[in-house]
Amino acid sequence: MSKRTKLMNFLSNLPDFVFDYIELAYNGESINTQIGYSIDIKTFLEYLQKFKFKDIENLEDFTVSHLEQVTLRDLNAFTSYLKEYETDTVTIDGKHVKRIRRNSEHGINRKLSGIRGLFSYLYKNDLISQNITDKVDFKKVHQKMKRPLSTQETVNLLDVIYNGEKYYSGRDLTEYLNRKQRDIALFTAYLGTGCRVSELINLDVTDVCFETSSFIVTRKGGDEQEIFMPVQVENELFSYMKERAENQKAADEKALFVSRLGRRMSAQGVEKILKKYCATVGIFDSDKARPHALRRTFACNLIADGIDIKMVAELMGHKNIEVTHKYYTQYAIEKRKEVMRGFDIKGNR
């Protein structure tokens, strides 16, 4: 079952106004994003069904007039409820499975964001008279510091990707050799362009143009952007595409990066492979072993090279430059270290 079909089946059990909201407000967003917000809204409606509108039998029976009756107290109580609550799901064979769900501050904020978006949509379209969610305070999230790969870690990671013969044997070596050129192309493209994993795995063969040394990605929100390739990225991508055309009959002929089964790679598949490479060279920090760490490293390297923050934001595909400033913080850490390590407490210059 495709993710699109899964989303449609999911929305069919929710009110029509939720379907309209997801389809219109998130048009251009990824299916995963649409599914995520649909689940969050379903959780909210289930809460209302359980504690406020007990006479409603099915979620699809909710109307906008019910949401008109939601109060600030209801929303605050829902926020507390999200910290820990029980769900009851029915398996294919009809068994009821109860699970305890817990949310971090970040998870609570994400769910509240989806609810606020729904109320905002209904209010702007004159379906409700007020947007009560504007009065809800989001949880204060304490950001965890996430570091980019160090220069030595980057060198070690590239060494195992390029020269896995030195690290692997037996079945691991066979698997490595079968995907070697693909992985080289994929991860050099990651480190060399800073694209998101979703942008890279959604590339089609026709998106790459060697005449212009670029490829076209679809950014968050659906906008397309031309990404210019560093020479090393272009060379490795050319070698991979040549090998793929000569040796591999892909089940998905459109997709650029394909799995061993010939299907378009998934984000989970990319993360699994990266974690294995990282573990091989001793990179065990969970944040550094995720694909986004390569994007973070790309941004920090640009800033360290003196590239203007506005240009970094454009290259990263950030619509809000404040997002880019997170990466500047990482660079500032290294500069603070440099200043303090060279500081003489006796005042000698």
Describe the model.
This protein has 349 residues and is mainly alpha-helical. The protein has two domains: 3-135, Tyrosine recombinase, N-terminal domain (DNA polymerase, domain 1, Orthogonal Bundle), CATH 1.10.150.130; 151-341, Intergrase catalytic core (hpI Integrase, Chain A), CATH 1.10.443. The protein is built from 14 helices and five strands. The chain has a three-stranded antiparallel β-sheet with strand order 3-4-5, with no helix packed on it. It has a two-stranded antiparallel sheet with strand order 1-2. Helix 2 (16-25) crosses helix 6, helix 3 (31-51) crosses helix 6 (105-124) and helix 8 packs across helix 10. It is globular and about 65 Å long. 25% of the residues are buried. The mean pLDDT is 87.
Quick recap of the structure?
With 349 residues, the chain is mainly α. Helices cover 54% and strands 7% of the residues.
CATH architecture of the largest domain: Orthogonal Bundle
Shape: globular
- State the CATH superfamily name of the largest domain: Intergrase catalytic core
- The strand line-up of the biggest sheet is 3-4-5
CA-atom Rg in angstroms: 24 Å
Helical content band: 40-55%
Distance between the amino and carboxyl termini: 68 Å
What fraction of the residues are assigned to beta strands by DSSP?
5-15%
Parts with pLDDT < 50 across at least 5 consecutive residues: none
Question: What is the typical, i.e. mean, pLDDT?
Answer: 87
| Discrete helix count | 14
